[in-house]
Amino acid sequence: MNFGVKRYINAVDLGQNSIKIIQLQKMRRSWHISQQVSHPSPGLEALERGNVADLAASLQEAAAIAGISKSKVISFIGGQRVITRQITMPPMPWDDLQKAVIWEAEKIIPIPVADLEIRPVVLEEKLSELGEVTQLHVLMVAASKSLIYRFNEIFDRAGLTLTAIDLPALNLWRVFAQGYCVPQPKEIQAVVDIGSQTSHFIVIKHNILSYVRSLSVNLAPADLSPNINDDDFQIIQEVAAGNELTGSHLYMPAGLVDDDSLYAQLVTEIRRSLDFYRLQERDTIIEQLVITGGGSQLTGLDQILQAELGLPVVVGYPALPTGPDKIQELHPQFTMAFGLALREVKV
């Protein structure tokens, strides 16, 4: 066998403010990160305005920088552009499941199914005591056919061949359930990738993607700093370290983060997600919250979230093992692109 043959995986994240590209290269028995590129982008709003040309031009420039012009790539669509619903279905063959999900979509999605591309993603197979499948935990995914057509058009105009479109939740799951991260994952943990306009929240329970939600919080670059002075920030650090506790909840001094601040909006959305999941899974205790994505680098955000939510919070970095005791660690802004690339990695 010729282990010198090189193989490549090219993953593209069309982010709001930048295009991120990760290229994985197979050399001998292990994968290596051979390219990591972040390039300014007009964002997918350009696509929604019908301005495919500007976005395609930015993508073409990013691809040239990464050295992947005219290559095959994979990408994903997320946020409010994609409708997701979690449903429970009886076990059935795959073809029947696809038909059943479309029938379910007609009942719960207020858009004609003829205008949508609808796919099921089986998150978990529930087993009986005898090991027989009794239920399917399914993520129903729907996106408009016109959006998918225009999304493909971006790559066509950029000279790239788009071979697959994935989901943000699955990207996060690959990184933080399969251990391609620093620190190593807990058995039950929540993960949120914080973007400039949309964040993605998931819960991983015993390596299974248990819950998915998109959070619409606009973290505009001009408004990234909360109204906190140095003395208050010291209080946050002390509270986050557990120096002031009330029962099982961390105490947060009143007025530390303004109710109208962007940090407060993010805290509220994450708290709602945690509360809803806990309502569905009353016996489940989430061990930690992992924050990742470019927004995870906002000054003091991990301490603020830990103090507000009463939950250990860590910043998660994507990382690729390349050999015994060797890893390549990435900036959190590349988490989505890296998780996307992992879909093609056979372990």
Describe it.
InterPro entries: ATPase_NBD, FtsA/MreB, PilM. This is Type IV pilus assembly protein PilM. Pfam families: PilM_2. This protein has 347 residues and is of the alpha+beta class. It starts with 6 loop residues before the first strand and ends in a 6-residue tail after the last helix. Helix 2 crosses helix 4, helix 5 crosses helix 9 and helix 6 packs across helix 8. It is built from nine helices and 18 strands. The strands form six sheets. The protein has a five-stranded mixed beta sheet, sandwiched between helices. The N terminus is likely disordered. It is globular, with a radius of gyration of 21 Å. The protein has three domains: 116 residues, Nucleotidyltransferase, domain 5, CATH 3.30.420; 62 residues, 2-Layer Sandwich (Dna Ligase, domain 1); 137 residues, 2-Layer Sandwich (Nucleotidyltransferase, domain 5). It is 30% helix and 34% strand.
In short:
It comes from Desulfotomaculum nigrificans (strain DSM 14880 / VKM B-2319 / CO-1-SRB). The chain has 347 residues and is an alpha+beta fold. Helices cover 30% and strands 34% of the residues.
Low-pLDDT stretches: 1-5, 221-256
SSE order in H/E notation? EEEHHEEHEEHEHEEEEHEEHEHEEEH
CATH superfamily of the largest domain: ATPase, nucleotide binding domain
- Cα(first) to Cα(last) distance is 18 Å
InterPro entries: ATPase_NBD, FtsA/MreB, PilM
Protein name: Type IV pilus assembly protein PilM
Pfam family, one: PilM_2
